[in-house]
């Protein structure tokens, strides 16, 4: 009886919140008061989906089949809440897409329910992935990528992978567009992207790996764009994804040098050709003479240790910036 009363109470609270959000979604998303009210309603739903649980002794009698001794569990109450609020959450995310805090709350509501009911969440998997894609297409944001990483790690095989794999592929495609634009100052998005890709690679099954093979070039292009950013966190996140060996860097220069050394060791011919092209054609090395470029490439090729590359890269960096 106590459990039934709790479920009824949750349903009433959720229904009231849905009504408020429906009204607020009709108002201007740029109005500060509206944004505050939306955030308040989302926090109520977030607490329900994240913190509400029931003691075993409060559960109703469990049905059993005469030919099956295994108990048939009743659905988790959060499932009913998600069914009730999912449409308005999707609409709220669309209306207030410019507000990253609102987007984060919308994602966290689904993520909270997901952690409590991973198996029963399956009917919401496709709508949730659609929400992430549509929100990301309007404005790439770190919370969306973080949520995608959670989905990729929890649903990485079977029929679920057929939903997660194309979602990941599309997020990579949209991220490449964003990375080719000005990401200066948006290191949180860079870090979230490579953290998500790292989780996907670590948890990937054959279906996901097949997709990753097709989009790997786009991921590497994102990494190349990220390594050109001046922010240290962006470089760290990128190199953490690219690095093969475990290594704790002590300076900004050591991180791209680790990537250089890894590529030099594992694919030397492709590395030399790509590095030579980058050094000779990049606008950022326009002030370096051809002889200095040739000398730099020769020193890189002849370097035998990772630590040898650090002063070489530092010297060339100073030349390119006219500080040497």
Automatic annotation (TrEMBL):
Pfam families: TPR_TNPO3_IPO13_4th. GO terms for biological process: protein import into nucleus. The keyword S-adenosyl-L-methionine does not apply. Keywords: Nucleus, Transport. SUPFAM superfamilies: ARM repeat (SSF48371). GO terms for cellular component: cytoplasm; nucleus. It comes from the Eukaryota. InterPro entries: ARM-like (IPR011989), ARM-type_fold (IPR016024), Importin_beta-like_NTR (IPR051345), TPR_TNPO3_IPO13_4th (IPR058537). It is found in: Nucleus. The keyword Nucleus applies. Belongs to the importin beta family. This is Uncharacterized protein.
